[in-house]
């Protein structure tokens, strides 16, 4: 799944660059949406995000793309590889990559197998 975001003034830190935490929020949300579309009967919560390294700064008015691709399905969890680029994915080097893992939980927050 691929989505796009426009970097607005409220997304910037006091130096005029995109807050890292804002980008992480968008990544978490985009990959959660991908997981929820792939497994509509599941109740996913984020359990892990791998390495967090920002390779380039991002300024106001920039359009970024966030691509989430399913990489691994376990008994109770699913992992997505996430690539963030300026403009379209594939146009130049990524500004950020990571893997996000979600676990399926019941209403009490206990892990349950995917598909139940």
Structural class, from secondary structure content? alpha+beta
Ranges where pLDDT stays below 50 over 5 or more residues in a row are: none
β-strand amount:
35-45%
In spatial order, strands of the major sheet run 1-3-4-5-2
Number of separate domains: 1
Query: How helix-rich are the residues, as a percent range?
Result: 10-25%
Question: Would you identify the CATH architecture?
Answer: Roll
Total strands? 5
Please provide the ordered H/E string of secondary-structure elements. EHEEEE
Descriptive overview:
With 116 residues, the chain is α+β, with helices and mostly antiparallel strands. It has one domain (2-104): Roll (Thiol Ester Dehydrase, Chain A), CATH 3.10.129.10. Helix content is 16%, strand content 35%. It contains one helix and five strands. The chain has one helix spanning 20-38, and strands spanning 2-6, 44-49, 63-73, 77-86, 96-104. It has a five-stranded antiparallel β-sheet with strand order 1-3-4-5-2, with helices on one face. A hairpin with a 3-residue loop joins strand 3 (63-73) and strand 4. The longest helix is centred in the first third of the chain and has 19 residues, at 20-38. The radius of gyration is 15 Å and the shape is elongated. The model has no long low-confidence stretch (mean pLDDT 94).
Compose a concise summary of this entry.
With 116 residues, the chain is α+β, with helices and mostly antiparallel strands. The chain is 16% helix and 35% strand.
